[in-house]
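Researcher: Next sequence.
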Amino acid sequence: MKQRLVILGAGESGVGAAVLGKQKQYDVFVSEKSLIDSKYKDVLIKESVSFEENQHTLEQIINADIVVKSPGIPDSTPLVKQLKEKAILIVSEIEFASWYTSAKLIGITGSNGKTTTTSLIHHILKYAGLNVGIAGNIGKSFAFQVATCNYDFYVLELSSFQLDGVDKLKLDISVLLNITPDHLDRYNNSFEEYVDSKFQIVRNSDENSVFIYNNDDTTIVNKIQHLNLVSRSYAFTSENLNGKGAGIEKGTLCIDINNPLRISEDLVSLNGKHNSYNIMASAMVASTLNIKENNIIEAIG
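Model: Next structure:
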C-alpha cells in the first residue's frame, strides 16, 4: 500500500515536493488555502497529482503518513497543531528532497547575505567545472531538481523556516554567516529559539562534515561553546588570520584550509565588509572541495 504524502502549500517548494513524491510512488495530495498559481496548477495536472485550493480539508490531510509543510506556514497554525497531536511526521521540502539524492549538499544560512553567498558558491563551483545545482530560496525547488536533474552537488540557501523542518538532513558543508534578531514573531519573540533554529544547519553533522562560521559574531561563537560539534570547523574573521580558516591582512583576504589562498580586495567586484565575509565563506567552501586557486580567484573577480 502506498504511503500517503500530504503537501501543505502549492508554491515552488510544495509543487516540487509533489513531483518528487509522485515519482517515488507516494499517494500525493496537495492542499492550498489560497488560489493556486496557474503555472503550478498546470504542473499538478500534468503530473496527475490530486489537489485542492482555497481550503484545507481536514479529512483529506489528517490521514497522512508524511506531511511536507510550506516554510510559510507557522507551527502555531491550528492545522499543524492537530497533525502534531496525531504524531504525524511533518518535514520541510528540503528535508524530503534530501532523502532521495546522494549528491553532496552545501547549506548556507544567516540573517543576512544568504543569497549573495549561495549564488557565489554556486558560481565558483560551476566555473570550476563541477556538476552543481542551486536551490532552497533560489530558483527551482530542491525537490523538483532531485526529481528531474542529476547533479553531483547542490548549493542550498536555507532560511530558519526551512531549517525548522529538518529531521535527518545531513549537510556535507554548512555555512553560518551571522545571526541578528529576525522573524522573532515566529519564535515566541525569543531570540534564543531563533538561534536554535539557525543551528539546525549542523544538526546531523559528523566528523566528515565541514562547518564554516563567522568568528566575529558573538552570538554564534557563544552558542558553539555550548555545543559538542564533531565536524571540522573553520572560522572567518575581519581580523588577521590565526591558524586554519580565513581572515583579512592589509587588504588581502587570506584563506588557509587545504592550500593557502590569497585574494586582493582590489580584485574583488563585491565591496564592503559584509561582502568580504561572503567572499571568504565562499572561497572557504571551494577550498574544502579542493578547487584550484586560480579557478576560485577568477570566479570571484
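Model: The two ends are 54 Å apart (CA to CA). The first strand starts at residue 4 and ends at 8.
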